[in-house]
Amino acid sequence: MASKRLLGCITSVFWELAEAWRYKIYAEGFAWSVSLKYILSCGSMALLIEPRYQDFFSRGLEPRVNYWPVTEMGMCESIRDAVDWGNANPNEAECVGLRGQRLVQGLRMHAVYNYMLHLLTEYASLMDFRPLVLPSLDAHEACEVSLLCLADDKQHRFLEASRAELADALGVTRLPALAPARSAGARRGGLARQR
Length: 195
Hints:
Structural class: mainly alpha
Radius of gyration: 28 Å
Strand content: 5-15%
Shape: elongated
């Protein structure tokens, strides 16, 4: 418990310090990363090194409006030029950071769901695959019994222990509504009285 609390303190101190930095650099690793929205949300001018992957909001980003672009070739010079420009134009650099922050803060789940629906619909329209079921002599329906038949004793015990059952079969009934929340002290006092 203490280590979680310490980690929470370190994390909050990190983000407090991160919000104070004038520039933040976003560089992807070998795969897509979710950190871009966190970097933009701090309000500092974000320097983006030519991202290869698109996030659900990144098509709304405009270079030199919401972020400052950094080229991969000549990266050091590009970062130096961005910092030099930002230091020479601190008000404009702050505006770039704040516009990026506003863009991220304006994201709503409704917009995310609309984007995902559009994306999946577009991908589905490109698909020309039609599944075809061919009769095969080697095809067998897999069911619970067939899995248990193939299992040795140890696997059989684990499969039986991990089997899911319907709530009705277990006799589960709906729990009554919870009483209004009380303070932790009142709950502890109630537990002490019940003992």
